[in-house]
Each structure stands twice: as C-alpha cells, then as structure tokens.
Amino acid sequence: MSATPQKNRATRRVLAAAAGLATVGALVAAMPAGAQERGHGHGKDHGPHTPARTVDVQLLSFNDLHGNLEPPAGSAGTVSETQADGTVKAVPAGGVEYLASSLRTARKGHPYSITAAGGDMVGASPLLSGLFHDEPTIEALNKIDLDVTSVGNHEFDEGATELARLQNGGCHPVEGCYEQGKKFKGADFPYLAANVTDEKTGKPILKPYTVWKKNGVKVGFIGVTLEGTPNIVTANGVKGLKFHDEIETVNKYAKELDRQGVKSIVALIHEGGAPASTSYNYDCDSPGAGDGISGPITDIAKGISPKVDALVTGHTHQAYVCTVPDPAGNPRLVTSASSFGKLYTDTTLTYDRRTNDIVRTAVKAPTASKRHGHPHHPAPANPVSVNHVVSRDQAPATDMTALIARWNTLAAPIANRPQGFISADINGRGSTAPEKPLGNLIADAQLEGLAPADKGGAVVAFMNPGGIRADLVYKTTGSEGDGVVTYGESFTVQPFTNMMNVVNLTGAQLVTALQQQVSGANEASPKILQVSKGLTYTLDMTKSGAARVVTDTIKLNGAAIDPAKSYRVAMNEFLAGGGDGFAALGAGTDKLVGASDLDLFNAYLAAHSTAAAPLAPPATDRITVIQ
Residue 321's beta-bridge partner residues? Predict the structure, then answer.
C-alpha cells in the first residue's frame, strides 16, 4: 500500500492509501451519559498506564475558498448573522490572513486536530491567485496546514493535467516559474478524487481516500465531487474523464476502508444544499425544521452508508450544520461553511479506542458568546459542531500577510491598471434577483463587441449567472481611488477568460433555451441567463417547468421571436458547449470564435466611462418576474 509523503509536522501526519482502496466501518450508537469516560481531546489517562477509552478528535473544515486570499469585497465578504432580537446583521468576514489565525487559535488545546476541506479551493479565483494559476492559494493552504481536501468542479477548470501539477508541483508548462530561482512545490495535502476516473484506465485520477493517524487513532477521509461536474465545466476541462455517482463511490470505498480496519470515516463531498435560513447561526435542527436543508445533498446523505460518520459538503456556498438520517435511521452530521474563507466549522468526533469508531456526534447551535467569530473555545462537554465566523477583528497571520504582499508585488503591474469608472456598486454575485445589474452590463459588453459583421454579427448575447463571480464595488480598500475599476477587479468578476462564440440559433431554439433556465435539470434551482439589451420577456414563477417562460412576451428589439428565423447569438464557450443544462445553446451552427469575455468587458468599460462621466448601474427591466 502506498502512502502520501510524510508532512514535516510534529503534531500530526496524514497517510494516503493506494488508489484501489476504499471506505470504512460501522458506527456506534451514542452511549448514555456517564457510561464512559471521555478524553476531551487530550487522551487523558484513567491511571498511570491506562489511556481513556475515548478521545475527542477535532475536525476543522471549510469549503469553496476559490483562491480568495484577500478579504472578499462587498457583499461577497459578509455573512448573515441572526441577532438575539431576531434581526439579521451582515458581518464582515474572510481573508486568508484571518482564516489562518482562526484555525491556529482553534487548534490550541486539541492535540488530535484535523483540518479538511470540501473542494473548490481554487478556480474562479481573484487575480491575485488566478493570474498565477492558483499557486499562491496552494502555498497558503500548505502554510495553514490543511490535511486533506476533496476536489470540486472548479479544480477542473484548467483540466486534469493542471490539477495534477497543483498536487505534485512543477512550474507552469507555458508560463514557467513566476519567481526566479523558485520552483512550485505543489500541495502538501492530498487532493481526493474518488469518483473521477480516467476514461482509458478506469482508475481514479488522484487518490480516492486518505487515512489520518495519530497514537493509534485512525480517521479515513473519502473525497468526491458532484457527478454533474461535466455540466458546469468547459468540455476541455473534463476531457478524458468520467464522473461517477457520489453515493455509490463513497459506499464502495467505505467498505474497503472497513476491511482495512478503519472504522471512523468522514466523506468530503463537493455537493450541497440550501438551508431554510441564510444566517450562518441558524439552528438547522430546531423544532419544525425537518432536515433543515434541501437540495441534492439531502438525498446523497440519506444514501451514504452508515459506515460514514460525518459529511463535510460544499458547492452551494451556503452555511449549515444539520443532522440528516443515514440509511439506518441514525442522525449524522452534514456541514458546510459558506465560501471564500468566511466561516469554518469546528466539529468534535468522539473516537472510541475499543471499537476504532466514532460515537455519533450531536449538533448544537452556536451560543451568543460564539457568534462573533472569536475562534477559540474550550473543549465542549458534549460533542458539538458549530460554524464560526472568520472575524477580521482578530490579528492577521503575519506569514499570510507576507505571502499576499509578495504575490501582490508580482501582480501589481497588471492588477492596478485602470479599466474604467463606476458611479456606484454594480451588483452581480451579491444580487439575489434573477436579473442582475452586473449581468446586464456583461451581456451588453458582449453584444457590443460581437455585433459588428466582421466580429460575428450578434443580435443578442447571453451570460450564465454562475460566471459572474463578484460585484463591482465602488469603494474598495485599495489605493486606486473610489469608483476606479482596475484590471484586478474586472478579472475577479470574470476570472475564467472564456473565449466568446457567436452562433446561429433558430427562434425556436432561443425559446427552448429560455425555457431550459427553469425546467429539466434547472427546474428545482433555476439558472436565469443574463440577457443583453433589446431582449425582454416575462417569467411566471407561479407556474412550473417550461411554462414559467411566457412565450408570447418574448421580444427582441420590440419584435416577437420568429421560430423559423435564424439569429446570431453571442455567448461564452461554456454556454456554447451546452453547459449549465442549456442543450439548446449547444446546438448552434456556423460558429465564430471571438475575443475573451474579459477583453470585451474591459473594452466596454473603457468605451463607456471616464472619471468625469462614470458608468452607472444599468436598469434591471429586461425580465419581468411574477412571483
């Protein structure tokens, strides 16, 4: 059996099992209070030679960092917190300097402490990380002492070869090394990809699981991404790969680990759900809450073997600590820590040395004293799992401050270049409305850049909402001046640099594409395309499926769509490949490949704004929504 390289740490080590192996053992029902002594994380002895039967293992987890090393700006940098009087407060949070401080403080007094992540550590990253193909983020995660993470869909943005480089090291094959005399070393922690196999060999492209060991305590981790990854990543990113069912994969490796004697298992699953409340301190298991979450993770959780003791999830960028029954009917923790390093989850796993298994954890809502992100709390008297805010009130980690400064120096010549001017915040990611001001701006930029006959002759443009990664913020913490949009800020909004396509679609295909926003795979969680000026229609959300699109209201420049007519439509290469469930958009013909989405966005900002006449947020009057 092969093992991962030993980490140079005195306190813990991670051993990764070989790629053909799998998961773990049965769970022990929670023992009655007083039935056993617990070590409270210290391995305390009952006598001079007899260790405690149980020991508390601290599991610190987070997900969906997306290369956000600096504190996220605008609404992307806050979490919602319900106050004692029932009001909701937006609390600033995040930034790797503060995440590192939070995790390091939380570990104090916990010799059995593991740090794990639920995928999307990189990808769709701000320029500070994205410009350097996310090497800065891997370096930061190494310094944070991350033990293990699953892959997420965004780990495949640049393909399996680039993901392997992030794991194993080596300078970028095209751009080379970014610092003279320094070679990128790769991740100290294992990336787990149990349900991602090579089409030719049928084997996982990375390790499917790893086993953490200390003083006889063994905890197995299985990592998977969502089976639907090919639907939300460009075709080139997943070329040659197969993505398998999450439940079947986790259960397969749980059995394998069990045969090896590893009875304590955590599944790292890059798939998630939606909690009943957006507040991070919502009590997911309060009376009447049911499971407390809905969405794909609930069915996955109910199907995963009872051999698995806890599920760390992600993908939906939501915050929750819930219990969902396993197939045996026993409650099991399902957690998620929002995104961008704004929260971390602190879970106690009570390990029984006699059975080598976890005594099922309980869930406890955060108390008032824990709501403001002060990360260090004494070991609890009972097993708990709580989300904590990564507060910016604490002292930043100086090594992370130095890391950010070093990479900012390298990025500065590009990052600080002004692209345009805005008069107020233009919300994209931070907008909860189907039609987003920044979505309209991006679609208009794409239409303008590709409307000329020699550029494609586009008459309408579509933008996928998931591709809008941030807001354009008027007032920032940088030095460029209020209202100035730098290259770094525009890159953060559109980090994929997707190439634009212009294709022919019939009017009937256009209508079908609009219906696919709210039907089929997108019915439960609609993906509302952002549309360029001139296209208007009504969405009736009181109806179901495709009927939500009121077809006789669809107009382009005031004229009804002709089903038989051919239209030139602009979209990024992801949508042109049928991504996000838009098969109709993938059926386009006579494709012309244009400039990148980022280039068109920056060109539009330059053409339509000056310091004296900044660009105002566009109106959101293209999609009429009936609720």
Answer: 335
How many Å apart are CA 301 and CA 267, to the nearest integer?
10
Q: Return d(Cα 581, Cα 578) in angstroms, integer.
A: 6
Q: CB neighbours of 55 closer than 8 A, spacing ≥ 6?
A: 38, 39, 41, 42, 43, 112, 217, 350, 351, 353
Task: Name which of 74, 402, 57 is nearest 213 in CA terms.
Answer: 57
Tokens read off for 29: 């029902």
Burial degree of 172 (CB within 10 A; 0-12, 13-18, 19+): middle
| Max CA pair span of the chain | 86
Judge whether 192 and 235 are in contact, CB under 8 Å. Answer: no
Please tell me the distance from the alpha carbon of residue 467 to that of residue 428, in angstroms, as a whole number. 10
Coil, helix or strand at residue 540: strand
Rounded Cα distance between 396 and 8, Å, is 24
Query: Measured in whole angstroms, how far is the alpha carbon of residue 619 from the centre of its chain?
Result: 29
Q: Are strands 148-150 and 191-192 parallel, antiparallel or unpaired?
A: parallel
SS (H, E, C) 64-123: CCCCCCCCCCHHHHEEEEECCCCCEEEEEECCHHHHHHHHHHHHCCCCCEEEEECCCCCC
Sequence-distant (6+) residues with CB within 8 A of 287 are: none
Write the CA distances from 143 to 50, 99, 178, 529, 540, integer angstroms.
Answer: 36, 11, 19, 39, 50
Amino acid type, 453: A
Amino acid of residue 625: V
Rounded CA gap, 54 and 166, in Å? Answer: 37
Enter the tokens of residue 100.
């590192």
Residue 290: the pLDDT is: 53
Task: Provide the residue type at 253 as one letter.
Answer: Y
Token reading at 268: 């790292």
- State residue 480's pLDDT score: 63
Residues 311, 338 contacting (CB under 8 angstroms): no
Residue ranges for the chain with pLDDT beneath 50:
1-48, 361-383
pLDDT of residue 476: 77
pTM: 0.85
Enter the tokens of residue 580: 């996000």
Nearest to 466 by CA among 341, 345, 339: 339
CA torsion, ordered 520, 526, 530, 533, to nearest 10 deg = 80
Helix extents (H) in 116-187:
127-130, 135-144, 159-168
d(CA 15, CA 5): 8
C-alpha of 214 from chain center? 30
